[in-house]
């Protein structure tokens, strides 16, 4: 099959048509280059989207209260619904077997937090222990709020890194006391958040302490739940939708809200959000594949046309070979070798150039929704296989045509 004489013929044919071969190679190389760059860009979009969802635990269902819009059981519309501890406890009691994490919060905005002579306006929240996992915070010093803090109404605080930086100016924060609206709390932890500095301008306190110390009674602001994981995404989506609907009906019944009043209780189901975003990302990547493959096909068509011209120019040579006993397979093999060689070498150059560009330029691209564009080994290998196949297809039809040439007709060709 591959022998010295065959390779000599290939290089001789290429050397006779250097410009034509170069331009053909450029079309193939640019096709694979564009495909890999587009795939890398698609991966960058996916990484950016996944980074956004790292802000919180996967599959959060957040619930909050709004104002009623419909009359129900003699109560006028326009009532402000207020969740209380009993709403949270009844929800847990009814759905205990479905829940993975659960938490309730009571929020205050723009409170003055001070340490020594330093002070600033920050948000603080009364939270349950699971809230740290739901919010996906990382405790870098100390610990998070625990069940003992809630049971004992401890005056302890877990502060964000931004709060520590602003108030402590490089000093150790653990064990120190900060003042929140003129009430002292002991710092037991410092956290960071994947969402960045905005989320780190918070202080987390035990929910029971906040309700008692700041006159909240048994009021709560939000309910947070995550469900037990399933292996199938569609099943997880269906499960979360059913849970959301059942939870809304429970809360509506308890708070005397019309069953069809969809505005009184707000729900954010991130499982649904994730499906929409990942579906969009899938469509973008499929579009990139389509554009890239179409570009490669254009290059391959160029290779095929060049091979047809080569067959036409070498018609007499092919006729002589067949007259001397060359088999159709040897004729096809000769044309295929040249086609595959040109396509593979050009494609490899395009592949290498695109990988180098992604390696060196990709990390320099800084965007919230586009991070670390790259192509993994499997995709690179797939593109290489596509190249070899494309080269074979580009040469097959001209080669088959050459094999069908009759020696007597070929010898008459001028």
UniProtKB/TrEMBL annotation:
Topology class, membrane: Multi-pass membrane protein
Regions that span the bilayer: 21-42, 287-311, 331-357, 377-397
Keywords in alphabetical order: Cell membrane, Membrane, Transmembrane, Transmembrane helix
Residue ranges annotated for the ABC3 transporter permease C-terminal domain, each copy included: 292-407
Superkingdom: Bacteria
Cellular localization per UniProt: Cell membrane
Record Pfam families: FtsX, MacB_PCD
Domain MacB-like periplasmic core: 21-240
Family: Belongs to the ABC-4 integral membrane protein family.
Protein name according to UniProt: ABC transporter permease
Organism of origin: Flavobacterium cupriresistens
Lineage, opening ranks: Bacteria, Pseudomonadati, Bacteroidota, Flavobacteriia, Flavobacteriales
């Amino acid at each position: 099959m591959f022998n010295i004489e065959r390779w000599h013929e290939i290089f001789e044919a290429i050397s006779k048509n250097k410009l034509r071969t170069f331009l053909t190679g450029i079309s193939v190389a640019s096709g694979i280059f564009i495909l890999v760059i587009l795939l890398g860009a698609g991966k960058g979009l996916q990484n950016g989207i996944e980074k956004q969802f790292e802000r919180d635990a996967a599959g959060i269902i957040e619930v909050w209260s709004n104002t009623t819009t419909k009359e129900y059981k003699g109560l006028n519309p326009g009532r402000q619904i207020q969740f209380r501890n009993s709403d949270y406890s009844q929800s847990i009691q009814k759905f205990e077997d479905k829940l993975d994490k659960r938490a309730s919060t009571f929020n205050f905005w723009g409170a003055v937090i001070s340490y020594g002579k330093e002070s600033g306006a920050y948000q603080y929240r009364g939270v349950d222990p699971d809230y740290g996992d739901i919010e996906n915070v990382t405790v870098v010093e100390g610990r998070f709020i625990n069940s003992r803090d809630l049971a004992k109404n401890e005056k302890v605080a877990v502060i964000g890194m931004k709060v520590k930086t602003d108030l402590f100016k490089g000093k150790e924060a653990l064990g120190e006391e900060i003042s929140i609206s003129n009430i002292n709390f002991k710092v037991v932890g410092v956290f960071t958040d994947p969402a960045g500095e905005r989320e780190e301008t918070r202080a987390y306190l035990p929910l029971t302490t906040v309700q008692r110390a700041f006159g909240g009674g048994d009021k709560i602001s939000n309910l947070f739940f995550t469900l037990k994981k399933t292996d199938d995404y569609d099943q997880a989506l269906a499960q979360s939708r059913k849970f959301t609907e059942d939870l809304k009906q429970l809360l509506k019944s308890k708070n005397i809200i019309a069953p069809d009043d969809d505005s009184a209780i707000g729900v954010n189901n991130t499982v649904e959000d994730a499906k929409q975003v990942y579906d969009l990302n899938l469509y973008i990547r499929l579009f990139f594949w389509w554009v890239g493959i179409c570009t490669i096909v254009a290059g391959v068509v160029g290779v095929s046309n060049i091979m047809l011209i080569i067959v036409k120019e070498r018609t007499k040579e092919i006729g002589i070979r067949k007259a001397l006993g060359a088999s159709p397979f040897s004729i096809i093999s000769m044309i295929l070798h040249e086609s595959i060689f040109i396509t593979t070498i050009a494609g490899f150059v395009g592949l290498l150039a695109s990988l180098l560009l992604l390696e060196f330029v990709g990390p320099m691209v800084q965007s919230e929704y586009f991070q670390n564009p790259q192509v993994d080994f499997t995709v690179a290998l797939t593109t290489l296989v596509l190249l070899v196949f494309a080269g074979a297809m580009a040469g097959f039809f001209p080669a088959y045509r050459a094999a069908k040439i009759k020696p007597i007709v070929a010898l008459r060709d001028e």
